[in-house]
Amino acid sequence: MTNERPITSRLFTTSVIEGRVELDEKYDKAYNSVISLTRGLSEEESHHALNKALDDRKVHDELCLGLLVSILADSSIASRHYHDLTLVSRDSLKVVTETLIHQIIGERFSRLSESTRRQLLWLVRELVKTGINNVEGVVWCLLRQIAGGDVSAKNVWLAESLVDILRENRPWLDKFPVIVASVTYTYLRILEDHSGPQFAGLRQKEVTFVVGLLRERFQDCLMIGRDLVRLLQNIAKIQEIEAFWRDLIHNPTSLCPGFTGILQLLQTRTSRRFFVVRLTPEMEKKIVFLCTDVKFGMQKRYQEWFQRQYLNTPESQTLRCDLIRFIIGCIHPSNEVLCSDIIPRWAVIGWLLSSCTSPVATANSKLALFYDWLLYNTETDNIMNIEPGILVMYHSMRPHPVLTTSLLDFICRIIPNFHPPLADKIRAGVHNSLRQILEKRVVQSLEPLFDNRHMDVELRKLIRETFPEFCANSVMGEVKHDDFVAPVSSQSVTTMDLLAETGLDFGASAVNSDSEVNNSNHIGGMEEAMFSEDEEEPPAQKPPPPPVAKIKVEENPVTPPSPVAEMEDVKPKVNDVNSVEEKVDLSKHLEYLENDMKTIILDLQNEKDTKQRCDLLQKLCDLIFSDDLDQMETVNLAYCLCHLLSDELTPGTSLLPQDISAESIQESLGNPLYVIFDNLITLPEDDHRRQPILQLLVEMHKTTYQVGYHFLYFLKASNIKSDKVQENNESSISTYRDLCKAAGLKDFAAFVIRDLRFLGEDDPRVLSWIIPDIYNNFSKQTRGNAELLQLVLERLDSSQLHDLVCMVLQGSLQMFDNSSFASILEKSLQWETVEQLFLWQLAKAHEIPVDCCLSVMPKLKFTSHSALVSNTHGEALSNILMMLRRESPTGILLRTLLLREFRMEDPTVVTILQYWVQRYEDKMANLINEVVNNKPQPSPNKRKRNQSTKASAVPLDQVLSHLNHLRTACGQTTFFALETMQDILQTAQNQCSETQKKKYGDLFALIEEEEEEEPAPEPQRKPKPSRGRKPKGRKKQESESEEESSEVNITRFLHLLWTLLVVENTYVTFLWYYLIVDRMDRNAHEFNQLFSSTYMLCGKFKVCSY
Predict the structure, then answer these.
(1) Is 861 in contact with 873 (CB distance < 8 Å)?
(2) 123, 270, 313, 970 — which has fewest CB within 10 A?
């Protein structure tokens, strides 16, 4: 009875509806294997028994899994079995960590029983304490399970247990910068939920822990980007957080030497990994399903279900910000989805905004929507992050005017009040957002939104003052209040300050009436769905401005004081290039340097002459050689140099001279920055003095991205001016690789591409000049790299392309090969038309055969005269057709074409079929015959025998579809009159179902016409009647006639052969070759007879086997 299947699960909770699953069976089997081996044995005997059973890999995985299940299921033996697990595991517990990540925590954490959860946290604590590989992935998955807006006992217990584990094992945590940043982001976010008095102890524990991470590991936390500021402002009233705020604003270098201030954070886009970590896997699946699989107009029941499960408590309203940031940053639908009837992102966000019941949460949600607008940079930010904002306002004007007006009001007031010292930059960021929205045609015009006559008069005035360039030129005359819709709420809207003391004082911009919220609980009621235009990159989602329509604005709004504004009054502005603040910052960095270096830096700051600046940098290099720098000195020196060399790093003109020659290249190397480069490449590789220079360049590269491509330019330019090009070139390669290694980066390809991407944006002319050296010197990392290739092609012009083509034809450049082209081609389908056409020019230069394109053929789409050009792949198809045009048909080519889905609107297959039929009629008939006869027979008895050919076989229905298209579109009826084609049609008709026979009746009608003409010669033969044997008798008579004709032909051939033997043996050889290839298949009997006769006549011929 011990092997009976248990009713309940060992690890998961079950119910009548949700019982045991296949995973339970797997875990039970592994658990029973362990128990059967160790039952009744001592600890030492158990070790021997387990080790003895580990001969097979499968047994190893099963035993590790069984030990894991026993640890989670039974706390009494958990310690012993964990010890067993660490002893018997031969893969560093890889099976255990992967099972935890992908199954137990990642998929079924919410189903774990209470005891299993406690054992799971105990196990994680032991894994972290032991430092097991990949346990950081387990911790990251547990962070995701801490749900935002959830203050239930289970969720609070998980948050507290995990923070205890991380505090106890802080040295382990510090080894993983990404986990440090993710932990900081998570606990800053949930601190907002733990504001109640019942959580005072936990809150203090979390505050102490997270502030410690921020202060001690701020360099790691910088990777969070702008959303770090958004989270901090929500909890700014906490004493420790407020103290950190003041240092962040007034003393940024105290947190990190290279940190310049809050602007640096706000200009850094937050990675999507941080948005993902704030949603549980279950939430993520459901919100992704809602945004990618639900049709517009059918979303209401899904939204109501989601709201009941996750947004039904007052505390859960804070989750709306996490959802909005996730939708904006992580869900970027393709053009196909944008043009489909799937619910657009703006509608989901509109529902989240309009159904919110908390004014504070509503204001924070608006901020989450517009956050990427504030310092939007068209070069580095993604338009998909700003698209939803404008669209939710635009499409809510009629069905939900209050939502539109509140968003418009919010965006107008946030510009001056978010952070007053940065008001100009924020205004520029919002204006950049609106300009790109218009350039990418997310909306055709902003006038309907900004000049809405139903808008409150004060709000219209505010919009005109804030966005004058986007409003109509006509001056707004006096407008009576009667002309406007009366405001829904009599409460006035005050202006809000994003960084106001707690960062939570946004109630003024929220929808102030509960009834108003209830009346617009979702955007699903909109009748028409409008989507963004098809662009190379879908327009970035921009957050919607606050609603203006029915909310009256107070005449003299009072802005609450901002703590950041108060702090800024203490010191002058930061980041103003010409201000005294820069010198103060520089002097702080100089404090970490030796006196000699400090003197050189100060001289460099005041020196304007280029030659003198070069001499000063040479002196600096000499000092570095004589006295190695420590890490702190290197970081601060790098910051000073990047600041002082900023003009040289961004010269405003191309680095490459207009007229390229050895002399002009030599002159271009007068940049003081290049003195450092020159000192580096002149030192031998084994010279210990190279390392401090390399570390200095690494820190400069981190501080200023231009350093990387300046170094690449210097390496090539220094080779051109040198006589020993090859020798120096090899030195350059090793030097650039050393720079990557010194930076601690393993992905060299990503390192090169990053520098080239910046180079392409700043100086595309240099990019095209340097790219051949990149491909030749770093071929392993660059050849066949689709990302690099697109980067190059999007920056090329026609003359630069011609240069590359010439180099390829000369054999001095190879950008890809046959093996990598198929992958590049598939990825290129999403590129711009010009980039694809340039790619095909290079493919022709590389002599890529058509075989390399066959695997992509079934994925290519085309529709003639389609209005949705983005849904077609005309560039690839037209070029593949031109390649096929130069090929003679083969079985592989024909099968690939026929496997392409038949669509009447796609002329691709029928075009090449017609082209081949016109030139290779007989060969095409034979090839089609092979395709049809290779079809697996429909009989079930032959299914196993034909199973191996199914993968390559073309479905009969598809073959007939293409043949019928050939008949109708090109009028190729004569081709079907060939004897081989008649046999093919007859065979196909016999294999078809009745439905198929009706479908292709016109095609099969060609057989009937041939069969009617054949009986005509019968009266001349007058064969004896013999029941259904007419065809056989006819064949016999025809055979006799052919034999007579054959004898005459043989006599004539022998006479010709004898004559040619006398003249020239070469003619005989040619004639014999023709006989073999042309006559052998037609009449084997005639060939045998002819061969024997020829052998008798000519002794020079030898009998050979054929």
Answers:
(1) yes
(2) 313
